[in-house]
Design goal:
SAM-dependent_MTases_sf, 2 domains, Rossmann fold, Methyltransf_16, 14 helices, S-adenosylmethionine-dependent methyltransferase activity, three-stranded mixed β-sheet, alpha/beta, seven-stranded mixed β-sheet
Length: about 400
Amino acid sequence: MDFDPLSLFTPKENVVEDGPTVILEEVKMVIDPVPRDEHLYPLHALDLPILGLRPPHYALEILLKLFAPDETLNFEKKDSVLDEDQNIDPKVVLESRNIAEDILSEALLWFTKYSPRFDSVIKLAYIPSLSGQLKESFPDEYNRWLVSVISNDLSWVLKEKVEGIKKLASTRLAENCGRVAQPEIIRRIHIRNLDKYLGEDSCIRLKEPSLTSDNLGLKTWGSSLVLANRLVNESLRRENYLESPVLELGSGTGLSGFVSSIVGFKTYLTDLPDIVDNLKDNRDLNNIDASVEVLDWTDPHSFLEKYGSIKFKTIILSDPIYSKKHPVWISQMIDLFLDDGPKSSVLIQVPLRENFEKERNLLWSLLEKKLDVIEEEIEDGADDFGETKFCFKRFTVK
């Protein structure tokens, strides 16, 4: 006998319950396809264009320019931090990154189709403010994307554009490899009360080429910022803190010497031949009225031939010791150029590096044989390599 399992099932009777009648109406939903704040969304590594889609040269060029870090302010981290209340002017941002309007319109067509995260001018303008978080959250993915741009033959790109794109990608990659490996930067220096001399645009801009071990003077060091801050604020607080003319020995990128000139003193900035060209560039970049000259501490003849037996009432130095020979050479230069009048002074700012403690003590010993210490202070500060302490001393003629 066949068994039918449905024979065990008894369906309920059809029952219609009395109740209120519900009338269904068509509900229309209006969805904004582009949220108003979409340009503020954090960037993700997956937003980066896929090279397999063959992005045109102008799309790659625009992104690589917008991923460039902002100018460094003092010794702070370079990448911008997004402030949602900040109003960003897209035109200003794009012009500051040297992005032409003609390639922008072409790039937007490609972004709209293949990379919608960057499909509007406002989204592109916010990339510099969002890129820091991208680099921190996805460092490996970001660097791999840059490497892929560098290593790809970019066969679909015009040959004359390939080298420029690879150079931009290489520069962006180098910027992530620490200060020693970084390419040329422009450092913006802000000093309290400098606006009293410069007005609203109270920053000094310093060009720093790639740092090499044999050209340490091409970098701005923490000592120069600490000394420059002192020159500005002490000159406001008391008269005759400096006296003209002023000689800076080992000017480097020129910060302390430029400040001396800005606060009103005739200043001569000096350094070795390999440093002076960049020093002149920085003088011109800031429209500083100061002399920039070669002065070799081991052979000052070229300087003496030009200026004769010139003497200086003020000599300033910041972080001048990175060789065992420097204390003796510095002492000799001070002997040669310091005026012997009662108002003459020497101002020196040095970092308290353990490896150069003997050299510092030797310098103090040599100077104190012929000069009196009238001011001394240990200060906290920092530069690209971290926080440190600095020693300031001011000497006058005995």
